[in-house]
Amino acid sequence: MNLEKRYSIGEISHITGVSKDTLRYYDRIGVFKPEYVDPDNQYRYYTYSQFWYLDIITCCRRLQIPLERVKSVLDLHDNEKIVEMLKEQRQEAQRQSEYYARVVDDIDWYTEQNKRLREMGKDKEIRVKHLQQRRVIYGRNKEDEAAYHIKLQEACRDEISHMESIKRNYGYVLNGSKIRENVFHQMGEYIDIRVDEYRFASKENILTIPEGEYACFTTEVRGNFADFGILVNWLDKHGYSPDFVIADEAGLQLFAYNQYFYPCEIKVLLSS
């Protein structure tokens, strides 16, 4: 075999399966440069010994090692040091594996949210449920009532920025005096991300939803209106007043659904 034979970029690509564009890119960034450049026509040529380097680069890329670190691997002639570098890459691969596992879990969760959305709204009965206390981040409407979501975004900004998951649900504190008029009047909006402790949200933006017995039913909200008739009749019949009313959205939806109708579970704390 003629070890001095020179190979064009097209031949290298054909033999190894590495595209010519990739080889040109490796040349441009200095990872894999041709050993010989013809001074007359500037054609680039590789030699037989360089095939080993390309094998090393290909292995490194399969391990997702960044190209800037591939240069370090090519410069090393100590396998122990290469093993240490690969252990660092293993840690990064583990981190990415955990990240994509969370992505899969979030997508499964969102799929279940959609299933819940399809099923809700079919049962119009009032159900009394004992609900545990929970703490949510709340955006109060003190100025422009139409901007309740902006208030919430301001309140939960720092907490959300540190979240790795999309798991969350939204809800509203309603003006109970308006439900007899079938008016869905949001006094504020909250987000429930079900964490043990809020680390970044301001204490003044934390709302505690009390434990207790709640009259619950599902209705569809259209703009600022919803049919509360069944609920109002039930409350009157049993002698309760709607002093604390919340509305939990049935599930997370990744589109601007507030322009359409959407199901909410209305919950009234039962107090005489």
From TrEMBL:
Source domain of life: Bacteria
UniProt xrefs under SUPFAM superfamilies: Putative DNA-binding domain
Lineage: Bacteria, Bacillati, Bacillota, Clostridia, Lachnospirales
Residues in HTH merR-type domain copies: 6-76
Signal sequence range: none
Protein name: MerR family transcriptional regulator
Keywords: DNA-binding, Repressor, Transcription, Transcription regulation
